[in-house]
């Protein structure tokens, strides 16, 4: 198997060629190619073990990522000048190779990225909820993993991976592997995770959650108890787990 990387800002990861989208991958994500045929690659995601198919055109040779996008999103410019033409947009978490580091712009093989939008690739953030806040207002997208569209498990994964916490891509594996389960009626604390069947949210503060949800069709803050009541009333059941990160 050969290791490659995603070279498009965002690409869908499909259950099968021309099938349904399961998740997405973003620029700089590493994958191993298990098979390739008729313009499709069967791949394994290095960051979380997710398997699926994506168009071969989304793949390129692996390069050494030195930095990652730390803003909600950023642009790659033709010149180190904010008035120059932008080439594409990159989402939070995209991994890039910086060739020349400058006070205002960093040069990459594809153009120039504003320096304030970058952190060294090995930087470990401390507060996943603060990272989730970067996505406030991002439109909800089933299977989405970027600032351009994201779902509940994609939001949690993006925030936790940036904090150095391993995290699968879907809510079921997240519930079974991330953090430790608290007893019923435990106090809510910032950074806790609340799980429902098929849904997950961060506790923002003891009275509020932050989550990507189809009710708002966006990443939004919502009163915690009101969300619990609303989700149960709409037929999606009670909270199945209250978990705390180590």
Automatic annotation (TrEMBL):
InterPro entries found in the cross-reference section: NLP_P60_dom, Papain-like_cys_pep_sf, PG_Endopeptidase_C40, SH3_16
GO BP terms: namely: proteolysis
Q: Which UniProt keywords apply?
A: Hydrolase, Protease, Thiol protease
Domain of life (superkingdom): Bacteria
Q: Where is the NlpC/P60 domain?
A: 122-246
Q: Which GO terms fall under molecular function for this chain's record? A: cysteine-type peptidase activity
Q: Does the keyword Protease apply?
A: yes
A Pfam family hit:
NLPC_P60
Per the similarity annotation, which family is this? Belongs to the peptidase C40 family.
What is the protein named? Answer: NLP/P60 hydrolase
Q: Which organism is it from?
A: Parasedimentitalea huanghaiensis
The uppermost taxa in this organism's lineage are: Bacteria, Pseudomonadati, Pseudomonadota, Alphaproteobacteria, Rhodobacterales
